[in-house]
Amino acid sequence: MIGGEECRLLKEVIGLSSPRRGGAPTYRLYHVVKALEHSARQPLGRHRISALLGLGEASTRTLMEWLIETGLALKRGRGIEPSEKGLKLVKAMNKLLEIQENIASPIRGGVAVVVPTIDPPEDLTGVYKIRDYLVMEGCRISVIGGVKEGKPVFPGLEGELASTIYEAVEDLGISDRALVIFIPRECLYNAYNAVARMVAEEVC
User: How far apart are CA 106 and CA 142, in angstroms?
Assistant: First the structure.
């Protein structure tokens, strides 16, 4: 379960995906969390963060400046390291969702986003509600369902496709309950933002 302090922090940083200074940033919440996570091991500079995250150097510079301005990171020489607040954000996001890569997926080359803080949808209305969050962030291809009491739940799916998805879910090793969203790999950053928004609005 995500706590009150974690919710407040999540809502504070969720504005990253909103336009600022005349346009939307080229980095997303995913990049923020991963930049903090990587630099927690040792202070990292612009070139290293750019290479690790696959961002251009100009976008990385803007990201690092934003992290320092918001108190999520501290300047260390030419690099940064996460502040206590930044470490709390990383911990909250890692608790909130898990990215499963290199798995069997109903979407070719796809990844799974596992969200233990949200129950799987019980019907197609629930599926459409979650899909709307994804589409709003630009992620238009997804397979939405989850696990409840250790059993796969994917409303509206039947036959061979359902069997394929159930096998993929079993590979995730979820024993209790969780929302599971399969997405194309290129949709990961968008889905990360979508899940964060969904938790901030539906759970917090």
Answer: 9
**CB-based contact 31:67 (threshold 8 Å):** no
- What lies within 8 Å, CB to CB, of 141 at 6+ separation is 107, 183, 184, 187
> Tokens 């194309």 — which residue?
184
Name the 3-class secondary structure at 147: strand
Tell me the CATH class for 97-202: alpha beta
pTM for this model (two decimals) = 0.89
Contacts (Cβ under 8 Å, ≥6 apart) of 176: 116, 147, 149, 150
Are the C-beta atoms of 61 and 46 separated by less than 8 Å?
yes
Domain ranges of the chain: 4-92, 97-202
Q: How many CA atoms lie within 13 A of 35 on its CB side?
A: 33
Q: CATH topology for 4-92?
A: Arc Repressor Mutant, subunit A (1.10.10)
- Give per-residue pLDDT as tens, 82-128: 999 999 999 999 999 999 988 888 888 899 999 998 999 999 999 99
Q: Which of 57, 82, 55 is nearest to 68 (CA)?
A: 82
Let me know: does 39 contact 67? Beta carbons within 8 Å: no
- Range list of H helices, the chain: 4-13, 29-39, 46-53, 57-69, 84-96, 124-136, 159-172, 188-202
